[in-house]
Amino acid sequence: MKKDILEKGAILQRDRETYAIAPHIPGGLTDSATLRKICAVADRYGLQLKLTSAQRIMLIGIREDDLDRVWSELAEKPGAAIGLCVRSVKICPGTTYCKRGVQDSISLGLKIDDKYHAMVLPNKMKMGVSGCMVSCAESALKDIGIVATAKGWRILVGGNAGARPRLADLLTDVEADEERVLEVVDRIVSWYRGCGREVRLGRLVEEMGIDAFRQQILG
Ligand code: SF4
């Protein structure tokens, strides 16, 4: 019986025959040349396209024999759409484009994406970076959620959607300093990598309580 092909980023579809793939589009920021290339490949192989919640474009309906050719013609890195790893870093437009933005979520989000996207972890991890408290990157539903405030950044932990949804807890507020945010994110990810459990981060935060978790991460 067919199943997902992790090493090709290929997700078996409902027909149990064809696959979908999703190239990595950091923060959903792309350009017309990339879109034309994706459309050309989709037309060549008769594929459907879907914009995903992870700010990617999924190409649907690929035959197993065509997977390598499709990836090669796209010439893009796979998005981490399956597997136990950092799946997606959702990034809102922030001060680059949005009139409500108070911090540069694109700058911070792309640095986080560059460092962590597809990193193998005990379970899947999603992150979101929002440029103001409106939180368009759904930061409160991410394992690590970051939200801009007038004074800096708010770091949330342990959120997730899914069958057992959970709103993230406030870990800490930090000043408007990307390096400081990256340092805290690094501490969370390092701790999670070595925690010896294979559950989502939210389960661990819930078991420990946010105060004990904060003590582990920030001392
Ligand atoms: S979270 Fe704020 S800055 Fe980001 S898109 Fe939404 S309103 Fe704009």
UniProtKB/TrEMBL annotation:
The keyword Cytoplasm does not apply. Keywords: 4Fe-4S, Heme, Iron, Iron-sulfur, Metal-binding, Oxidoreductase. Residues 85-217 form the Nitrite/sulphite reductase 4Fe-4S domain. The lineage of its organism: Bacteria, Pseudomonadati, Thermodesulfobacteriota, Desulfuromonadia, Desulfuromonadales. This is Nitrite and sulphite reductase 4Fe-4S region. SUPFAM superfamilies: Nitrite and sulphite reductase 4Fe-4S domain-like, Nitrite/Sulfite reductase N-terminal domain-like. It comes from Pelobacter propionicus (strain DSM 2379 / NBRC 103807 / OttBd1). PANTHER family: NITRITE REDUCTASE (NADH) LARGE SUBUNIT. The keyword Transcription regulation does not apply. One of its GO terms (molecular function) is metal ion binding. Residues 12-76 form the Nitrite/Sulfite reductase ferredoxin-like domain.
